[in-house]
Amino acid sequence: MKPTAPAYQLLDQPGQLAPLLDAIDRVDEVALDTEADNMNCYRTKICLLQFLVDGKVYLVDALAPLNFAPLYEKLATKHLIMHGSDYDLRLLHDLNRFECKSMFDTMLAAQLLNRQRVGLAALMEDYFGLIMSKESQKANWSKRPLTQKLLDYASLDVWHLPELRNLLTKELRKLDRVDWLEQQCRRQIEAAQTGFPSGDENAWRIGKSEKLRGRGLGVLHSVWHWREATAERLDTPPFKVCNNKLLLTMAQHAENGDSEATILASINLGRRHSRLIKSLTAAVHQGLETDPASLPRRQRNRDHRPLTPNELAFQDRLKAGRDQIATKLNLEPTLIANRSQLAQIARSPEQLDELLLPWQAGLIRDLPAFAQGANA
Fold it and tell me: Domain 8-192 classified CATH 3.30.420.10?
């Protein structure tokens, strides 16, 4: 059945936030979702905020000239209901320093119930028989004005969240996993406060760049940074300037000893070619002049040292035990501990409580394999 969009209020003009702020003051919890754009601009931006407050939907144009500070300040004191909150919370933190107080994430709840499909559209269909449109998932949310179709779609993202939360909670309570979910949500909140990973000085080492040893490294370093600077100047995603394959092709030509003219001869930058070829030529020239030895080197992480034979055997026993308990509990095994975590536990079993949440650590600690390995 196709869902019917609820009535909603669009707030996109100065002074229009007052009704939403007043509504938030009257409640303890708020259902929240966001629509962002990272496909049409250099830096991801929040384009729309969707709220369900006391049974009413508010859609806030995040690109409008509004004072959002009071909104985020009030929101930080409320319990939130969200779906797949990790990306939204990290984005809100990076852009607005927002920190969530507490929340219920319906996707995390569905995972702990071992639902085979945990997307919001899938859960809407499974629990309510509603078929959500997928057209708007690839929409350009930064384009104005927003169409009614997009606004209707956005309103549905929060409309059913409280009811879905209630149904998932009943199932979690039957399995005695409500506390597990609270731990998962708390960890997600804490992780979000670190935001997204900052820029890596070795991010330019794309694809099979490890095979480059000579001039190709210098060219790849130079043209990758050219693409980043160009994308930022044009406010477009880097892949829309040119793809990785093109960068690697230029680097490989340089590695083969080809001339600057040969490297540039087969380059086609599409409709922007005439505007960008001059700056790209300068970047290639700079790359050819760069000493590969002067480029940033990868730092080896000592924590990633290979496991010893005894540690590998311990890891295998932990994995087998984890898989058995996961089958018994009808859980995805990696929800208990993923491969990386098992390797870290095998290397340093005394760090179990630092690596895992209490409910996860309890399951691993009860494994005979853990007791044997930890005491070995």
Answer: yes
User: Which one, of 30, 331, 345, 313, lies nearest residue 158 by Cα?
Assistant: 30
Tell which CATH architecture fits domain 209-294: Orthogonal Bundle (1.10)
Question: Where do the structural domains in the chain lie, given as residue ranges?
Answer: 8-192, 209-294, 304-374
- Name the helix (H) or strand (E) containing 105: strand 102-105
CA 260 – CA 247 distance, rounded (Å):
14
The residue count for the chain = 376
CA nearest to 40, candidates 239, 175, 302, 250:
239
Question: Would 209-294 and 304-374 be classified into the same CATH topology?
Answer: yes
One digit per residue, pLDDT tens: the chain, 376 residues? 888 999 999 999 999 999 999 999 999 999 999 999 999 999 999 999 999 999 999 999 999 999 999 999 999 999 999 999 999 999 999 999 999 999 999 999 999 999 999 999 999 999 999 998 877 778 899 999 999 999 999 999 999 999 999 999 999 999 999 999 999 999 999 999 988 887 788 899 999 888 998 999 999 999 999 999 999 999 999 999 999 999 999 999 999 999 999 999 989 999 999 999 999 999 999 999 999 999 988 766 555 678 999 999 999 999 999 999 999 999 999 999 999 999 999 999 999 999 999 999 999 999 999 988 766 6
CB burial of residue 194 (10 Å; 0-12, 13-18, 19+) = exposed
Predicted model pTM: 0.91
* Amino acid at site 255: E
Q: Has domain 304-374 been given CATH number 1.10.1420?
A: no
Q: Quote the distance between the C-alpha of residue 184 and its chain's center.
A: 16
Residue (of 366, 342, 367) closest to 356 by Cα position: 342
Q: What is the CA radius of gyration of the chain?
A: 25
